[in-house]
């Protein structure tokens, strides 16, 4: 205590207040001062007490008289300005230099000693030190407070950068080169740099987010205690945290364990800041780490809550709790929203809560709740929300609850989950299932399931339609009995079907299966194999459809088709189908035989190849005229088969049309008419020859006439010549006359030769008047000779008809010769009779008529119908052939025309009607 007092006095400068000018002997008179110095008037040091010399480690003697300032630190220069006299009565705080660099803090005053001055000094080093320490601690506290405030107050997103700023401040305050705050890894194991500061001059020791591993954990139990902040400060070597640098580290403790570290790199705290104690350092660390950790925990908590809220929102779920003592229930805000409660009311009376539930489920929930509350029985219940609009889909909630006991407190809580999706799906699935069941039950097909058991398929299910269809039951079909019911002829199909089903997974086949009454049904069997995830067969599902009727109908159709096919094949007629461009689709054997190929070679053959251009054109024209209304046409067609005679077919076509009325195919039946045709042509020819023979008398006259003229001319010329009268003009005249007659005879003979020829195969276009002219050429002279007058009309416009000109001529000759015969026989009875034959032409747009009439009295009406019959004649045997009119009729018909007869007032009248062909 006396010591303390003394120190305090020294501090306050009260120690023996310096007297105004007092003579003081240096030693040992001034016991109150520690040290003395003798100064001269100018302030130069003349002597130094021994103890002061010791304290300043100065040599004993031989010192030059230096000014006092030379012994002092520069900071004391102001204090010793001027000369000692001026310092009198002042407290002088003087810091002396020590050779080791330390400072000797003193407080002194001067006293006059004659002409010199005595400077007495007290050591105040310890006082100075305490003051420094206190100041340091205060500064430290301020810094800690400032840092804590900053990290507490900043926005959480800026927390890390603010921390870095605080580290910088801290580092600058204590000249720390490298500083880092280390927090636990987010995962919990090991440590990680949260923020750091690095002075520009120092090597980079740490980085943000750097992982430091778990080495720090080894320090957490012990090192804090070992760190002694006294002198000397122990330095921690920690490879993982500090590398090879020296440094020290501060832990932040909470709840008995280290929660953060503050690392100081390249730093010796004891040396740099000797004034700070362990507590101050720890304070600093906690001031920074504490709030950060708190804010992190707070943020994590908030995140947790947000996640929970989002989860509840997404799931349409939320917690609820029955509040003890009040009949109230508290709901999570999300749940309140789901239930459509107002934002503010998350607490509501239990009764109100129950009112939200559908009446059908309300009592169940109420009863389960009371069981839970009273007996602690865990609750699980699915309920619907009350529906105000019956059209809306139901909202299903799964409500779960349990009792939570902690200490004395007993809480009843749980959660509600919106399970509408699942419930609605369940309902839909159930409905679909019911529909499917219905469908299976009402299906006319038998649906079956076969279970797979080591390669065998055993029936496990048949739909209800099995009994009405086959009469069997499932039991009667199992254990391989099914095979017995299969028709013996179809057993191969049956076994093959099972093998294929197992091998390929799907099968479709038909076989006969016996029903309970013993009758066989044709079944269409379609099955599919179902496999598990590993591809192993599990079961087969299939159906049987009774196709007996269809199968029989198909069979009948097939049989009838076969019959028709045989009919077509074996028919003597040629039958074929061809497209409108005359390509064969099908032809039967007779057609193939005719064309000298096989039936298989027929499809694709072009019928048009065997037609002449004209025939083809006529054929196509005929086909073109087919319509759905009049789909058939018949014609005699002429084919030119290479290397063979012309063939004549009677050909009947029938068009097949599509829905749009377009001709798609023609079906045709043909008969070879060549023989008949040839016979008819022969007949024609013979008739023609007969006509010719008939005309022989007329023709003899025709030729006789010119011969007579020539003979007369020759006789006359010879007579002149014998008279010697050779007159050239006369001779020339006679010879010309002879020549004219020769030409006339030649013309007649020529025409007969042409007429006698066989007709051309093909019909030609010609002018019918040519036939009239030819006929008159041959007959007119003869007629005149017999006294029959010919009345010929001038023809009208020239037209063309199709046929053979010689044949039409033949017809006209026939008609005129018949008329002549009738006229001549009439004149035999009446010699005054004047016979005539009239030939005139009528025409309109389509038709030309050649009309031959006479005044021979006509034909007996009873015979009119018969005169066109072959071999009908009224003429005596050997005169008439009875072919003339019959052949004529055929010729005109071949030309597409018609020959008809009628009786006029004077005689018979024959009309040849011919269609006009216009190009
Ligand atoms: P044919 O002249 O060889 O008897 P046709 O077939 O030419 O054979 O004539 C058949 C019959 O028709 C004749 O026998 C005749 O009785 C009768 N007939 C034909 N033309 C006439 C006619 N113009 N006037 C009267 N009868 C006719």
TrEMBL record:
- Entry keyword set: Kinase, Phosphoprotein, Transferase
InterPro entries linked: HATPase_C_sf, HATPase_dom, His_kinase_dom, HisK_dim/P_dom, HisK_dim/P_sf, PAC, PAS, PAS-assoc_C
Q: Which residues form the PAC domain?
A: 507-559
Write down the chemical reaction(s) this protein catalyses. ATP + protein L-histidine = ADP + protein N-phospho-L-histidine
**What single Pfam family name could you report for this chain, choosing any that match?**
HATPase_c
What range(s) does the PAS domain occupy?
Answer: 432-505
Instruction: Indicate whether DNA repair appears among the record's keywords.
Output: no
Q: Name the chain's protein.
A: histidine kinase
């Amino acid at each position: 205590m006396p010591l303390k007092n003394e120190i305090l006095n020294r501090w306050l400068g009260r120690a023996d207040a310096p007297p105004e000018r007092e003579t003081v002997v240096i030693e040992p008179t001034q016991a109150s001062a520690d040290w003395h110095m003798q100064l001269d008037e100018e302030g130069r040091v003349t002597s130094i007490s021994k103890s002061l010399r010791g304290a300043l480690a100065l040599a004993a003697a031989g010192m030059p008289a230096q000014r006092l300032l030379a012994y002092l630190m520069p900071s004391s220069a102001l204090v010793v300005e001027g000369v000692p006299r001026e310092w009198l009565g002042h407290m002088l705080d003087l810091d002396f230099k020590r050779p080791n660099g330390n400072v000797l803090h003193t407080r002194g005053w001067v006293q006059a000693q004659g002409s010199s001055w005595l400077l007495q000094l007290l050591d105040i080093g310890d006082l100075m030190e305490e003051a420094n320490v206190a100041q340091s601690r205060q500064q430290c506290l301020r810094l800690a407070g400032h840092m804590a405030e900053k990290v507490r107050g900043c926005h959480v997103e800026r927390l890390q950068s603010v921390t870095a700023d605080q580290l910088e401040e801290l580092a600058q305050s204590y000249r720390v080169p490298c500083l880092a705050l280390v927090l636990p890894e987010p995962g919990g194991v090991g440590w990680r740099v949260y923020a750091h500061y690095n002075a520009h001059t120092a090597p980079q020791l740490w980085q943000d987010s750097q992982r430091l591993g778990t080495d720090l954990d080894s320090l957490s139990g012990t090192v804090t205690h070992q760190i002694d902040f006294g002198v000397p400060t122990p330095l921690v070597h920690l490879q993982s945290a500090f590398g090879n640098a020296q440094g020290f580290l501060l832990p932040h403790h909470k709840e008995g364990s280290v929660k953060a570290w503050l690392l100081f790199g390249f730093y010796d705290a004891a040396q740099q800041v000797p004034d700070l104690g362990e507590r101050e350092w720890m304070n600093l660390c906690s001031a920074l780490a504490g709030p950060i950790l708190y804010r992190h925990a707070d943020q994590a908590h908030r995140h947790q809550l947000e996640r929970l809220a989002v989860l509840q929102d997404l799931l349409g779920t939320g917690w609820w709790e029955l509040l003890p003592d009040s009949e109230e229930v508290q709901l999570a805000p999300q749940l309140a929203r789901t239930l459509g409660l107002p934002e503010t009311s998350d607490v509501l009376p239990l009764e109100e809560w129950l009112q939200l539930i559908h009446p059908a489920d309300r009592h169940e929930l109420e009863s389960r709740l009371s069981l839970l509350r009273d007996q602690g029985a865990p609750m699980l219940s699915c309920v619907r929300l009350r529906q105000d609009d019956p059209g809306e889909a139901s909202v299903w909630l799964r409500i779960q609850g349990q009792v939570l006991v902690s200490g004395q407190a007993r809480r009843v809580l749980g959660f509600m989950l919106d399970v509408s999706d699942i419930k609605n799906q369940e309902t839909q699935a159930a409905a679909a299932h019911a529909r499917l069941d219905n469908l299976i039950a009402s299906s006319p097909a038998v649906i079956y399931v076969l279970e797979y058991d080591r390669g065998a398929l055993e029936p496990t299910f048949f739909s209800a339609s099995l009994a009405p269809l086959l009469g069997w039951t499932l039991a009667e079909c199992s254990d391989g009995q099914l095979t017995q019911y299969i028709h013996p002829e179809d057993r191969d199909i049956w076994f093959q079907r099972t093998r294929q089903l197992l091998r390929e997974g799907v099968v479709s086949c038909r076989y006969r299966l016996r029903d309970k009454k013993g009758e066989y049904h044709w079944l269409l069997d379609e099955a599919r194999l179902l496999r598990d995830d590993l591809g192993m067969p599990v079961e087969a599902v299939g159906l049987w459809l009774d196709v007996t009727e269809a199968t029989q109908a198909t069979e009948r159709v097939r049989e009838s088709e076969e019959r028709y096919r045989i009919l077509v094949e074996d028919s003597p007629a040629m039958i074929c189908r061809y497209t409108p461009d005359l390509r064969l689709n099908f032809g039967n054997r007779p057609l193939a035989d005719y064309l000298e190929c096989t039936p298989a070679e027929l499809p694709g053959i072009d019928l048009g190849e065997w037609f002449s251009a004209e025939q083809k054109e006529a054929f196509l024209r005929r086909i073109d005229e087919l319509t759905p209304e009049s789909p058939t046409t018949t014609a005699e067609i002429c084919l030119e088969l290479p290397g063979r005679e012309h063939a004549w077919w009677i050909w009947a076509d029938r068009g097949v049309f599509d829905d749009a009325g377009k001709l798609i195919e023609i079906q045709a039946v043909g008969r070879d008419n060549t023989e008949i045709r040839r016979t008819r042509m022969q007949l024609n020819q013979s008739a023609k020859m007969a006509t010719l023979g008939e005309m022989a008398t007329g023709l003899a006259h025709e030729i006789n006439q010119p011969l007579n003229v020539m003979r007369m001319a020759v006789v006359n010329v010879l007579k002149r010549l014998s008279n010697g009268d050779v007159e050239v003009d006369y001779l020339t005249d006679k010879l010309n006359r002879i020549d004219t007659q020769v030409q006339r005879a030649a013309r007649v003979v020529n025409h007969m030769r042409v007429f006698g020829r066989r007709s051309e195969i093909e019909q030609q276009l010609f002018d019918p008047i040519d036939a009239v002219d030819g006929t008159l050429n041959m007959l007119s002279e003869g007629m005149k000779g017999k006294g029959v007058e010919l009345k010929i009309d001038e023809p009208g416009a020239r037209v063309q008809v199709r046929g053979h000109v010689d044949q039409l001529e033949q017809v006209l000759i026939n008609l005129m010769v018949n008329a002549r015969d009738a006229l001549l026989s009439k004149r035999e009875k009446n010699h005054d009779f004047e016979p005539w034959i009239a030939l005139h032409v009528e025409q309109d747009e389509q038709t030309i008529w050649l009309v031959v009439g006479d005044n021979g009295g006509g034909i007996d009406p009873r015979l009119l119908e018969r005169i066109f019959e072959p071999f009908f004649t009224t003429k005596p045997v050997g005169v008439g052939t009875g072919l003339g009119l019959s052949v004529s009729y055929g010729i005109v018909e071949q030309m597409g025309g018609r020959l008809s007869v009628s009786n006029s007032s004077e005689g018979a009248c024959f009309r040849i009607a011919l269609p006009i062909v216009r190009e």
